[in-house]
Design a protein that fits this description.
This protein has 200 residues and is mainly alpha-helical. The chain folds into 2 domains: 91 residues, Transferase, Pyrimidine Nucleoside Phosphorylase, Chain A, domain 3 (Up-down Bundle), CATH 1.20.970.10; 83 residues, Pyrimidine Nucleoside Phosphorylase, Chain A, domain 2, CATH 3.40.1030. It has 9 helices and 4 strands. The strands form 2 sheets. The protein has a two-stranded parallel ribbon with strand order 1-4. It starts with 5 loop residues before the first helix and ends with a strand.
Length: 200
C-alpha cells in the first residue's frame, strides 16, 4: 500500500480535490490503527462535510470501512435475511415491531441498530432503558438468536466495520453528523459487513 500524509489529504479535500482510492484506503486503515489522530480525522470529516465526495469516493470510503473488520455470513440459516435502516427521527420506533413481524414470515432479521447522533435517541438508546437488556452481542450470540427466534436487535459487534465505529463517535462530537458522504458510507459499511441478503 502506498504511503500518504494525513495533512496533505486534509488539504486536498479542503481544496475540493478528489481523493484517490489508495489515499482513502490508507486513511481509513491508518485511522483505525490509531496512526491518523482523531484531530486529523476531525479535520477531514469537516472538509468532507463542507466539500462533499463524489460517488466513487463514497464507494471507496464504504469499501475501506468494510475492509477494516469482519464480515458476517448468514447462509447457514437456510432462510432469506433482511435488515432495515432508518435515518432516524424523534418518533422512529418502527424497528421494535417490524423485526419480529418480518421474522414471523420466515425471514431472518439481523437488525444492527445504532445509538443516537445529535439530538435524537437511537433504537439502542431506547432499548437500553429496559433493565437487563444487552446491546452488545457476539457474532455467535447473534447467529444463535437468529436461528432460534428469527430476529435480533443489537449493536454492530466490535469486529464489524471498526473504522466506522470510531468515525461515528467522532462525528457526534465534531459537528459533522450531517455529512451525507459519511452518513451513506457509515450505513452501508455496517449493513454490507453484516451480510444480510437485502436492505430496506
Amino acid at each position: 500500500m502506498s504511503t500518504f500524509d494525513a495533512v496533505d489529504l486534509i488539504i486536498a479535500k479542503r481544496e475540493k480535490q478528489e481523493l484517490s482510492t489508495e489515499a482513502i484506503d490508507w486513511l481509513i486503515e491508518n485511522y483505525t490503527a490509531g496512526v491518523v489522530a482523531d484531530e486529523q480525522m476531525s479535520a477531514m470529516a469537516m472538509a468532507i462535510l463542507l466539500n462533499g465526495m463524489n460517488g466513487r469516493e463514497i464507494k471507496d470510503l464504504t469499501m475501506a470501512m468494510i475492509a477494516s473488520g469482519e464480515r458476517l455470513n448468514f447462509e447457514s440459516l437456510g432462510v432469506p435475511t433482511t435488515d432495515k435502516h432508518s435515518t432516524g427521527g424523534v418518533g422512529d420506533k418502527i424497528t421494535l415491531p417490524l423485526a419480529p413481524l418480518v421474522a414471523v414470515f420466515g425471514v431472518a432479521v439481523p437488525q444492527l441498530s445504532g445509538r443516537g447522533l445529535g439530538h435524537t435517541g437511537g433504537t439502542l438508546d431506547k432499548l437500553e432503558s429496559i433493565p437487563g437488556w444487552r446491546a452488545n452481542l457476539s457474532n455467535q450470540e447473534m447467529t444463535k438468536q437468529l436461528a432460534e427466534v428469527g430476529a435480533v436487535i443489537c449493536a454492530a459487534g466490535s469486529g464489524l466495520a471498526p473504522a466506522d465505529k470510531k468515525l461515528y463517535a467522532l462525528r457526534d462530537v465534531t459537528g459533522t453528523v450531517e455529512a451525507i458522504p459519511l452518513i451513506a458510507s457509515s450505513i452501508m459499511s455496517k449493513k454490507i459487513a453484516e451480510g444480510t441478503g437485502s436492505l430496506v
